[in-house]
Amino acid sequence: MKLSVIGTGSVGSSLAQRVIDGNLVDELVLVDKIKGLAKGYSLDLEHSTPLCESNIDVRGSKSYEDISNSDLIVITAGAGRKEGMDRSDLLKQNGKIIKSISSKINEFSPNSIVVVVTNPLDLMVYKTYKTMDVKRNKVMGMAGSLDSARFKYLLAKETGFSPKDIQTLVIGPHSNKMIPLKKRTYIRGIPIQEFLSKGRINELVNATKKAGERVVNYLGDGSAKYAPSSALLEIIKSIKFNENRLIPVSFYLNGEYDIKDVCLGVPAIIGSNGVKEVIELDLADEEMEQMKEAEKEVKDQIENLKDI
Ligand SMILES: NC(=O)C1=CN([C@@H]2O[C@H](COP(=O)(O)OP(=O)(O)OC[C@H]3O[C@@H](n4cnc5c(N)ncnc54)[C@H](O)[C@@H]3O)[C@@H](O)[C@H]2O)C=CC1
Ligand SMILES: O=C([O-])CC(=O)C(=O)O
């Protein structure tokens, strides 16, 4: 498998290291607009291959020609938010970057599966999909796996159970309006409500929504990288090994959940060809209302992307 990572800042370089450590692909290409950055990191990563028994061919580049014939491309390019900012404040700046990168992917590697990470996530997945004009199964965004992991982590800390025994799903937008599915949250099949009060569960839901912001507030200028790169690995492995994992990803909806022409987080089966199937859950009325509100909010923001 050939994997290209576009944007080798915090998330991109953390991902690259995890890919090398896991000897996950045959070829890894790093691209960044900053002169020398991708080349420097790729050389450093290559030096680590004898130590982690990896035989990946790593290359750093400023040129998009090098991404030709990638099986998979991860876009981690673009600005991150600073303390006090909302992810949506990045819309115009990152919209332009995503448009130019997805045009380059179209030119040099139009058959790749593309996983978008850049924020505001659902809008950037939409922009990538619309610019590339490919089958929709090929384009998805990483967020739901990260948000679900954060909810799991908080539940595990609170209850003392192993995170391995916690099942949950966070769907909807990658924003403060994300929807952790409380009624589908279990400890090894036992509903979470048997262990925690309604009020405490709601507090953990709110903490999940603010998890990314907490990291940003500590860092001041920069955002999370380790958990996002772990979440990306889950998606990459499911594609590479055709694992058919059920992973929430941001995806272009065409009627699923009664939503059309926006990208939002939904549970999907991820295999070697990208998104194999969207799983339509029978959501509670309150959750469905939240999905419809998110649809409206994302649609309003799409208007601001049209002139980009
Ligand atoms: N979906 C999610 O759950 C998450 C999303 N993010 C988002 O991912 C993006 C990247 O975050 P970080 O790695 O922390 O940022 P960063 O600033 O550390 O790295 C971004 C890199 O992109 C490069 N870049 C910018 N424009 C480019 C272009 N046109 N072509 C190639 N490279 C370009 C920059 O030179 C920089 O090296 C941000 O938008 C951030 O908000 C971050 C964490 C989680
Ligand atoms: O919070 C941010 O800006 C980065 C991100 O999306 C996350 O960590 O969830």
Automatic annotation (TrEMBL):
<keyword id="KW-0175">Coiled coil</keyword>
<dbReference type="InterPro" id="IPR001557">
    <property type="entry name" value="L-lactate/malate_DH"/>
</dbReference>
<feature type="binding site">
    <location>
        <position position="87"/>
    </location>
    <ligand>
        <name>substrate</name>
    </ligand>
</feature>
<dbReference type="Pfam" id="PF00056">
    <property type="entry name" value="Ldh_1_N"/>
</dbReference>
<dbReference type="GO" id="GO:0004459">
    <property type="term" value="F:L-lactate dehydrogenase (NAD+) activity"/>
</dbReference>
<feature type="binding site">
    <location>
        <position position="150"/>
    </location>
    <ligand>
        <name>substrate</name>
    </ligand>
</feature>
<comment type="similarity">
    <text>Belongs to the LDH/MDH superfamily.</text>
</comment>
<dbReference type="InterPro" id="IPR036291">
    <property type="entry name" value="NAD(P)-bd_dom_sf"/>
</dbReference>
<dbReference type="InterPro" id="IPR015955">
    <property type="entry name" value="Lactate_DH/Glyco_Ohase_4_C"/>
</dbReference>
<feature type="active site" description="Proton acceptor">
    <location>
        <position position="174"/>
    </location>
</feature>
<feature type="binding site">
    <location>
        <position position="119"/>
    </location>
    <ligand>
        <name>substrate</name>
    </ligand>
</feature>
<feature type="domain" description="Lactate/malate dehydrogenase C-terminal">
    <location>
        <begin position="145"/>
        <end position="306"/>
    </location>
</feature>
<feature type="domain" description="Lactate/malate dehydrogenase N-terminal">
    <location>
        <begin position="1"/>
        <end position="141"/>
    </location>
</feature>
<dbReference type="GO" id="GO:0006099">
    <property type="term" value="P:tricarboxylic acid cycle"/>
</dbReference>
<dbReference type="GO" id="GO:0006089">
    <property type="term" value="P:lactate metabolic process"/>
</dbReference>
<feature type="binding site">
    <location>
        <begin position="7"/>
        <end position="12"/>
    </location>
    <ligand>
        <name>NAD(+)</name>
    </ligand>
</feature>
<feature type="binding site">
    <location>
        <position position="81"/>
    </location>
    <ligand>
        <name>substrate</name>
    </ligand>
</feature>
<keyword id="KW-0560">Oxidoreductase</keyword>
<protein>
    <recommendedName>
        <fullName>Malate dehydrogenase</fullName>
        <ecNumber>1.1.1.37</ecNumber>
    </recommendedName>
</protein>
<keyword id="KW-0816">Tricarboxylic acid cycle</keyword>
<feature type="binding site">
    <location>
        <position position="94"/>
    </location>
    <ligand>
        <name>NAD(+)</name>
    </ligand>
</feature>
<dbReference type="InterPro" id="IPR001236">
    <property type="entry name" value="Lactate/malate_DH_N"/>
</dbReference>
<dbReference type="InterPro" id="IPR022383">
    <property type="entry name" value="Lactate/malate_DH_C"/>
</dbReference>
<dbReference type="InterPro" id="IPR011275">
    <property type="entry name" value="Malate_DH_type3"/>
</dbReference>
<dbReference type="Pfam" id="PF02866">
    <property type="entry name" value="Ldh_1_C"/>
</dbReference>
<feature type="coiled-coil region">
    <location>
        <begin position="281"/>
        <end position="308"/>
    </location>
</feature>
<keyword id="KW-0520">NAD</keyword>
<feature type="binding site">
    <location>
        <position position="32"/>
    </location>
    <ligand>
        <name>NAD(+)</name>
    </ligand>
</feature>
<dbReference type="GO" id="GO:0030060">
    <property type="term" value="F:L-malate dehydrogenase (NAD+) activity"/>
</dbReference>
<feature type="binding site">
    <location>
        <begin position="117"/>
        <end position="119"/>
    </location>
    <ligand>
        <name>NAD(+)</name>
    </ligand>
</feature>
